[in-house]
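Bench notes, afternoon.
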Amino acid sequence: MQPMTTEQIRALIARGKLKDTIFQALGIICLAVGLLVIFLLVSDMLMRGLDRLNLDFFTEFASRRASQSGILSAWVGTILVMFVTALAAVPLGVAAGIYLEEYARRNWVTDIIEINITNLAAVPSIVYGLLSLGIFVYAFGFGQSILSAGLTLALLILPIVIVSTREAIRAIPAMIREGSMAVGATRWQTCRYHIIPYAMPGILTGVIIGLARAIGETAPIITIGALTFTATGVDGASAGLFDWVMSPFTVMPIQIFNWTSRPDPAFEVNAAAAGFVLMGMVLSMNAIAIYLRYRMRKNIKW
């Protein structure tokens, strides 16, 4: 086989650069189209609901009259449900990820557990709703409460938190563990002072992704019996400190669904405003995660 000439090598390099340029241009076009669609949808939602974005909209309960209807019970219920979800899913998911990656032995049992966790991340959310209806609502007797909703969404995002925790731990160089154990640190001390701090930015990213998915879920919440209107948990001054956990609830996706299903076009304006508020809540969660991740990475010294 004859060696390639200089002209042939240059032509081969030129073809490769041309393919790279075409691929890069296609990627930029796809990105621009996606951003344009998102911008148009958000702009349309903002323009339709801008008139309703005032203080009364956040401090009034839902009403039969669109002009007097607000999202007070919905956004308060969303915050309370997400609080329970985070309290249940984050510690359990992070601990499970650390155990599977750092402590569990590599055998057929752990292989089955890993396969099931990966598969659970792709299970439709309605399945978790049906499971929670039988377990939390009826078997445990929690009823149609904030606790049931929070635990349902915790089950939904638990596989995401576990997988993201394991991936963040795997990204840490092996020399960190070896150096820690070489100076006499135990496995727990290595995890406590080295593995977890270095992996925390990645773990936090997975947690926020899971919570962002949970905050917009509707099917499992409807399945366990979320209400379309409730004033519980807002004006119960004489109630106990944690009585809100067992209270009936509604959340932002349920309120938006209720308004969009009504024949009066005025409620669609409310739904657009509520959708923009929900999107703002998700973006705020992501902004906090980005800030915390930046601060943590800034403090890490490899």
